[in-house]
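Re: that chain you flagged

S.,

Sorry for the slow reply, it's been a week of failed gels. I finally had a moment to sit down with the sequence you sent. For the record, here it is as I used it:
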Amino acid sequence: MLKYLTAADYKHNTWTGGETTELFIYPPQAELGQRNFQCRISSATVNVERSEFSDFSGYQRFLQILQGEIRLQVGQDEPLDLPQLAYHYFPGEAKTVSEGQCRDFNVIYQSPISIDNEILLAGDQVQLQSDQAYFIFNPNQDAVDLEVETEKLRLASMAAVWAVEEKLSVTMKAGQTAILIAIKGLGVNK
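Prediction finished late last night. Pasting the C-alpha cells below so you have them in one place:
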C-alpha cells in the first residue's frame, strides 16, 4: 500500500518556542499528550535560542536537523554540534536541551519498534522490504521526483509517501534530498 501525504493531512501545533507539524502518528487515533502512540513523526521549527525537550520516558528519539544548526545536550553526555542533515538517536527520558534555532525532523518510537534513516540524493535507488513500513519525506522548498517501481511521483514541499508491507524499488530521480525512515516492528496492516 502506498499513500501520498500532503500538508492538508498533517496536524499543526504552536508552542512557546515555535511550531510543530505532526506528519504521522500510529495508531492513527493516538494523541501525543496521552502518550498512547507507538510511533510519531514530526517536523518542528525552533525559534528560540534555548529549548528544553519534553520527557518521553519509555520511548526512543531520533532527531535530524533540516535547516540551521544546534548544539544538543542529552543527559550527562558531551554536547553535540548538529549541522544541517546531521542526526542523533537518544532515550526519550534523558534531560535534553538544545541551543540554536533550526527546523528539525523527529521520530519518537517505542520498543519493539526500531528505525533506520537514510538521506536520498538524485540517482539513489533503495529496495523497500515487505516486513517494514517506510516514510519518505521531502523537507525542501522545491519538489523532488521519485519513481516507485514504474509510478512517477512528485513530492511537493513537506509532502511524503507512506509505504506499508510492499517490496518496492524506489529511485530518487531529481531534487535536493529526501529523508527515508524505515520502521521495523510497527505491525501496520494494509
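What I noticed first: The mean pLDDT is 93.

Talk soon,
D.
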